[in-house]
Write a structure and sequence with these properties.
The chain has eleven helices and 20 strands. β12 and β13 form a beta hairpin. Helix content is 25%, strand content 27%. By secondary structure, it is an alpha/beta fold. It is globular and about 70 Å long. The strands form four sheets. Strands 16-15-14-17-18-20-19 form a seven-stranded mixed β-sheet, sandwiched between helices. The structure holds S-adenosyl-L-homocysteine (SAH). S-adenosyl-L-homocysteine binds next to α7, β15 and α9.
């Protein structure tokens, strides 16, 4: 996965991962999975019970009884049948009880991802379509003249493990991250086309996490031609989205609410937006009358796109875009005695898993310390972590430690999380990846 093994300050290719999804196909593979050219049958004939099964070690049924959607390799005692990647398997407790029906991924530590806890439910193309339909229906009120972009499907948390779908106007950007998602690829794409009626669907399964499921990275148009000029509106601000090659699905929709929250703090402020990507926070700051905005990102493509986005909105020319390593650039700004009224720190995932937490904690502390030092009294820091391995408590401790070392008194003025189209299922706390603090210097 991304940054862990690299020396500090080299998070260059690191992309923020939306969800700790995946890796994760049904009793028989769906017909289209084995024969991609074959027409998709609306519902493959299949009995509810599956001959293929993973039987768990005694005591390992607990998490499934709590409706957690993952089965780890260590929990499995016996394998029944010839289980292939993506097959639907029954998950059976040691005492023979049915626990769940799941997609198997024999290569992954996450050996199965649950489709359903209902023994009577058949996993077929109709089932997949219904899950997607419900997920999309839950977002109905997120679209209006101020917004035409949202995450439609958020993987495990929406009951569709390994499937991420972002809608950008008339284009869908799809990530299939698990063996189960991969197996039902054609059914998923057909269903998305039917449900949304969009002209263009693009695949962005070019993510490292697929390797854990022994799936190759893949991207390109799935339906329609590759869209030439994808535009969205968010809080009235326009963005051009590079769906084909931008980071992740093309845009970080998870920060939508926070961009608005930060906008109101930017009036007459000198603003520093670190890890700015295509300008989300920076453009919002300008919209609300920031005195100056300095926006930093190490990706030349992101900065070029950010400039185009600024031009699209005809915003005042009070912004400086800098292509630089933010860890180094923060030091440079400190050495120049620069001061700000609002600093945004939205780094990529520094700790993909708990193994990387210690190193990530040092990196988070480093940038937060520098940012706090450069804040004027009364100034605000909006600081984020999208590391699954760093919980909110730890993150708050890190920021508190940074304030002590910076010799700055500060208070928490608010806690920030992802927008509502990035829900966290109550039975899947691993989905709670994005956390943020609004901190004000006293
Ligand atoms: N705030 C953005 C999303 C940030 S995602 C928004 O609202 O859209 C994290 C960003 O950090 C990416 O754009 C990535 O290019 C950038 N990045 C990764 N490592 C970096 C580094 N060392 N220095 C500066 N930017 C970096």
């Amino acid at each position: 996965m991304s940054p862990p093994g690299r020396p500090k300050g080299e998070y260059r290719s690191a992309q923020r991962e939306g969800t700790p999804v995946s890796e994760g196909r049904p009793a028989d593979p769906p017909p289209q999975a084995r024969n991609p050219g074959a027409p998709v049958r609306a519902s493959a004939p299949r009995v509810a019970g599956s001959a293929k099964a993973y039987v768990l070690t005694p005591g390992r049924e607990k998490s499934l009884l709590h409706r957690h959607p993952w089965v780890f390799s260590g929990a499995i005692d016996k394998v029944r049948g010839d289980v292939q990647s993506g097959d639907t398997v029954d998950i059976i407790a040691a005492d023979g009880r049915f626990l769940a029906r799941a997609a198997a991924s024999p290569a992954s530590q996450i050996r199965a991802r649950v489709w359903t806890f209902d023994a009577g439910e058949t996993v077929d193309a109709k089932f997949i379509e219904e899950r997607l339909r419900r997920s999309i229906a839950r977002r109905a009120n997120l679209f209006n003249s101020e917004h035409d972009a949202a995450r439609l499907v958020h993987a495990e948390s929406d009951g569709v493990p390994g499937v991420i779908v972002d809608r950008f106007g008339g284009t869908l950007s799809v990530q299939l991250l698990s063996a189960g998602a991969e197996a039902w690829r054609d059914a998923i794409v057909d269903a998305l086309a039917r449900i949304t009626g969009v002209a263009s669907i693009v695949e962005r399964s070019d993510v490292e996490v697929r390797a854990l499921e022994q799936l190759p990275e893949r991207s390109g148009p799935l339906r329609g031609a590759a869209p030439a000029d994808v535009r969205i509106v968010e809080h009235g601000v326009q963005y051009a989205i590079d769906v084909a090659a931008g980071q992740k699905t093309g845009f970080y929709l998870d920060q939508r609410d926070n961009r608005l929250r930060v906008r109101v703090l930017a009036r007459d402020a000198d603003v520093l937006d670190c890890f700015c990507y295509t300008g989300g926070f920076a453009l919002n700051a300008l919209t609300s009358g920031a005195r100056s905005v300095l926006a930093v990102d190490s990706s030349a493509d992101a900065i070029a796109q950010a400039r185009r986005n600024a031009a699209l909105n005809a915003l005042p020319d009070r912004i400086e875009w800098v292509e630089a390593d933010a860890f180094r650039h923060l030091r440079l700004l400190r050495d120049q005695n620069r001061q700000f009224d609002l600093v945004i720190l939205d780094p990529p995932k520094l700790a993909p898993t708990v193994r990387h937490v210690e190193r990530a904690a040092r990196a988070y502390k480093d940038i937060n310390l520098l940012a706090l030092k450069m804040l004027r009294p009364g100034g605000w820091l909006a600081t984020f972590s999208c590391s699954g391995g760093v919980g909110i408590e730890l993150f708050q401790k890190i920021v508190a430690g940074a304030a002590v070392d910076a010799r700055v008194d500060a208070q928490i003025g608010g806690r920030l999380g992802p927008s509502a189209d990035h829900p966290v299922s109550l039975s899947f706390p691993e989905g709670d990846y994005l956390k943020g603090l609004l901190v004000q210097r006293m």
